[in-house]
């Protein structure tokens, strides 16, 4: 490893204390995101900062990048409208990632799901069997 990769490895260890689970495109994820609410209180003339967790649950349609720059894209349908969000893996705003369901897909990028609705947008569940 060269110097840059060594420094990136040290940064990755420092940024993420709890490792994320193994997931790939096609898996259904629940991403808990830290949301910061800032409100101005007229009485005390100060900003109030409140932090809370908000869950974003959907299908992982892509993983891109490597090292400290790695990110993943999650897509969900909200009120009939498709919503996609890109989360950096080592972002301090990503609190945790939980794998709800593993999907069986044959490609790494599932951008074709953007044009699909209903039954054609379904992904079969992956059952990992160990061949013995």
- Treating each run of at least 4 consecutive H or I residues as one helix, how many helices? 1
CATH fold field value of the domain at 24-103 = SH3 type barrels
Q: What characterizes the major β-sheet?
A: 5 strands, antiparallel
The mean pLDDT is: 90
**H/E order of the elements?**
HEEEEE
Q: How many strand elements?
A: 5
Overall description:
With 132 residues, the protein is mainly beta. The chain has a domain at 24-103: SH3 type barrels (Roll). Helix content is 10%, strand content 43%. It is built from one helix and five strands; from the N terminus they run αβββββ. It has a five-stranded antiparallel β-sheet, with no helix packed on it. The longest helix has 13 residues, at 3-15. The two termini are 36 Å apart. The mean pLDDT is 90.
Keywords:
single chain, 132 residues, mainly beta, SH3 type barrels, 5-stranded antiparallel beta sheet, 1 helix
List the helices and strands and how they pair.
Blueprint: H1 3-15, E1 28-41, E2 46-64, E3 71-78, E4 81-88, E5 94-101
């Amino acid at each position: 490893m060269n110097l840059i990769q060594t420094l990136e490895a040290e940064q990755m260890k420092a940024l993420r204390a709890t490792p994320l689970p193994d997931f790939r495109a096609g898996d259904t994820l629940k991403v808990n995101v830290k949301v910061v609410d800032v409100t101005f209180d007229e009485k005390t003339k100060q900003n109030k900062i409140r932090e809370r967790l908000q869950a974003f649950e959907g299908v992982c349609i892509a993983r891109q990048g490597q090292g400290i720059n790695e990110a993943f894209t999650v897509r969900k349908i909200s009120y009939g409208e498709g919503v996609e969000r890109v989360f950096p893996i080592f972002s301090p705003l990503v609190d945790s990632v939980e794998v709800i369901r593993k999907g069986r897909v044959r490609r790494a990028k599932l951008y074709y799901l953007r044009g699909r609705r209903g039954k054609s947008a379904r992904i079969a569940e992956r059952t990992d069997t160990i061949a013995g």
